[in-house]
Design a protein that fits this description.
Blueprint (H helix, E strand, L loop, with lengths): L1 H17 L3 E12 L7 E14 L2 E8 L6 E11 L2 E6 L23 E10 L2 E5 L5 E7 L2 E7 L4 E8 L2 E8 L2 E10 L2 E6 L4 E7 L2 E8 L22 E9 L5 E7 L4 E9 L1
Antiparallel strand pairs: 1-2, 1-18, 2-3, 3-4, 4-5, 5-6, 6-7, 7-8, 8-9, 9-10, 10-11, 11-12, 12-13, 13-14, 14-15, 15-16, 16-17, 17-18
Length: about 270
Amino acid sequence: MKKLIALFAVTTLASTAAMAGVALSGSASVSYDDNGTSASATSYDADISAVGTNGGTTVTIGMDVNGANAAITGADLATKIGPVTIAADMFDEVSLDASTVSGGQRTETTDTSVTVSLDVPVGDMTIGLDNSGNVVLSGTFSGVTVSHTVGDTTTTTASAAIAGIDMSVTNKAGATTWTLDTTVSDVDLTLTSAQKITAAFGLAGNTLTVTRVPAVAAHTGTVADNDWDTTAVASYSTAAISRDLTSGATLTATYSTLDDSLTLKAAVTF
């Protein structure tokens, strides 16, 4: 019996040591949506993430566990060899969109990839090179952070905090988008170039968030662009009240003017 107890103790210690470099986290939620004038519905979601670390190498595995069969949702590896960074996306997700009116992909594509990038500091600027042949110039100058990517699609992003306003401007292939974030009288405001406006009131653990979602124009998909049609959606607003409970869960009630619906969601993260 003593030998059996000792063997069990050694096995337990070995298992604990083997898990020392692994961090587990996850989330679970249940939602009830009255769907306005349509039939009500209940939905569930549960996810687990495992992150294994050995020195400067990290492997991240994601899993969706609320269905009839647990399914992997992601598998990524990241490591560095001197100034060279290697990132591998080893999971080929199902990218085909079953809906023909959502603007998603109409044919399946391979999503696995390996990215090898080189970062070389030159003064206040870092010069990077990835396996796609893109050259990335980045740095912070006089409080403004700038990133400029030269490749098949030239992209420039500049961000700064000026007079209490966090600003970010991105120009990609000639198209410019921007985001403004600020706080006025304890209200967190966000405004984007897509005309989306968000206002968050209250303290951590007890908040009200009001969001104005811009309209979506109709779009005709093409085989060449590998996308389905997109149906037009009018602009609408949502109001979400979120409160942390003593049980450790968070309860959120969201009202949407899009379909006059109320959604109740209880969620927990660990």
